[in-house]
Amino acid sequence: MKALVTGANKGIGFEIARSLGKRGYDILVGARDEARGRAAVEKLVAEDLQAAFIKIDLNDLDSLREAAKRVDSLDILVNNAGIPDSAKPGRAPLDIAKPTMDYTTEDLRTTMETNFLGTHELIKNLLPSLTDSAKIVNITVPISPTDFWHPLAYITSKAALNVMTLTFAYEFEKMGSHRQIFGIMPGAVATDLNGMEAGGHGGFVKSPEAAGELSTDIIVSGKNQNGQIIQYDGKIVTDYEIQLRG
Fold this sequence. Notes:
The protein has helices at about 10-20, 35-45, 60-70, 105-125, 150-175, 200-205, 210-220, 240-245, and strands at about 1-5, 25-30, 50-55, 75-80, 130-140, 180-185, 230. By secondary structure, the protein is an alpha/beta fold.
């Protein structure tokens, strides 16, 4: 069994890769930075897990097509890689306090091209390599704006990703395919993107390790989860279209 996890050189992606590896999967560590990707592979191999590096740069569509040619068979694709905003010197990658009016068209374009268009291109090119019962997992977030959570570029790109999840799932079902595509919301997780600490906000913020285990439990579930958006606690989001309307 083989799984490809994008953005697997650190954070949630690395922990999902590790957890899948412990459950018997050969892991393809997808990362844009080759040095960091190979370092992640070394960590997994040191734990007696089967892992190899594959360069995945969501901003380079040609590289995604070339990467797909090197994958002959795949049981699980976890689309974890992404960016929260276009990079700004002196600002955190995910600036939760950034006012909506401060987002530029370039912020939106850069984030959408990476998180949505890049992921779409990777999925399309890997379809021929997916086994008959393969699972495509899109790591996503809530899209409803709240006082605490309304990073425009990030949630807009994830809303598009969620719609893609639903439409691919519809096509799989219509074709009578056993393949599944679904989204997982890992919740608040301490990563270098947000600067939060595990256990923060009254224990609301999870560690990457905990998020990886919870996400993997959902991924390897024997349930048919095609077309679902699932929270880290297993709850299925049933009001997604209501969220789109606000």
